[in-house]
Amino acid sequence: MLGTYNYNSIIKKTVVGFGTLFNNIEIRRTQGSKTEVMKVPLAYGPKQKFLARLRQLGDLSTRDQVQITLPRISFEIQGISYDPTRKVSPTQYIRHTSGSAENKAFMPVPYNINFELAILAKNQDDSLQILEQILPFFQPSFNMTMNLVPELGEKRDYPVTLTSIEYDDQYEGDYDTRRTLIYTLQFVAKTFIYGPLADKSGEVITKAIVDYATDAVPTAPREVRYTTTPTSLVQRDGAATSQLSAAADDNDGIINVVDASGFTAKTNIQIDDEVMRITKKSGTKLYVQRAWNNTTEAAHVNGSNIFKIDEVDHAFVDADDNFGFNELYSEFTDGKSRNPTTGVDE
Q1: Which carries the bigger pLDDT value, residue 48 or residue 139?
Q2: Whole-model pTM above 0.85?
Q3: Helix, strand or coil, per DSSP, at residue 106
Q4: Does domain 234-321 correspond to CATH entry 1.10.3470?
């Protein structure tokens, strides 16, 4: 169990998402009719590292010895803790199906990630400009929408909560010492850690066959077979079969079509958002039952497209869609049994 490789990059994605919130902050300095716009640099790391760089003397002859400029923003992880208030049943599954592929995983485990964000500036106006571009969005939380595990197709809102603000004015020493104003903001980002995914590709059931026999012997031949397959409740392929040759009121049981050759009785059709079931066909007239499949009966104008709901639409049905079932009963007297491995009656 433990030791099975599993890495969904949850913490890494959360760190990137948190940093992205602050990657477009700028300050403006106005002097007379000129305004200087400066984008504030953002980097991951402890503020002590940047304070140490500030105290170093610049030396252009030595690599990486150029003094850094202010203002700038730094952030780092301060801790990770379990959050019992968001715990759900660990035996529940999250399932995501796309075509014939299905991915599933147990419910994720809630964790809180503590971040520290530091605003470093050499004058108060710069630091306050940065601060006022952050504080209005946290009341005290700001939601980040992320898809942490794309295979599950689950987008969630992850709140980031501002918990405290501290201020420090490091202005000590002689006149050669650089002044550094530091605003330290503490945040808590609520996230979820996902376990390993179970890939069930090709295991989505699209057809069920049940054989009935009057004999209780396991090898008894089938006498009645019940087959069911998913059926689309609406048209999906977008290919019109015909058009209305006259307007249809919301209570008409007979509709006139341009060409009825593509329709048969007991076929479902769709006009606009209403689904109808054909009970009889006579020339270019279709006798229909209105508001089929819990749709709403409505009037339709002359020339409206008529879509036939058929096998092509059934093939587009996904496991996450709202769909019905085709049912087929068959009776047999040949004494054969179905081989579930080969799918052949033997």
Answers
A1: 139
A2: no
A3: strand
A4: no
